[in-house]
Predict the structure.
Amino acid sequence: MNKYLLYEEKQYIGQNRLGQILRLIFAMLCFLAYYWSENPKPIKIIIIKIGSYPIQHIPHSGTIFFWLGCFILLLSVVLNFIYHFHLQIFPDKVLIKGQLTSREVEIPIKEIKQIKVKNIRYPFLRNIRFNLRIKNKRHFYTYGDKLVEIELLSGEKYAIGTSNARWIKNIILEIKKNTKPR
């Protein structure tokens, strides 16, 4: 029965908002340091006085900042093609595969007690997570503004971050409704 794939979603590492923001800030700081090395004169901006470039006696010392900024931007582009986890829904289970951890988490659909969809507060400030246990709940998140919370009959809870949470909930509820216990 596993050969019928009902839903599939891949979440990529580079699409995490917090990671994007941090990489862009570091790249901007590198380009700012490069500009400062090319124009080493002291500057006074309203309240702040920026002194002269500290290592002026070394020629082309700011070039490393330029190349570091370029490398950070290139890394940011490459991370958009590396997926963090792969969510698949089959008629009998929900399967979450981790690309970087080579682990699989299987949630049997007949064991699901309840399913809830929640909004994520500040989704751009969340780190990526795969199978991270916090307060007796396993978290899976790369990006998205909604969270699907699944509770099993055994009491185990799963939280899966996605942007298609209502769709996932409806698919699982439809499967549960159509499969009757024998």
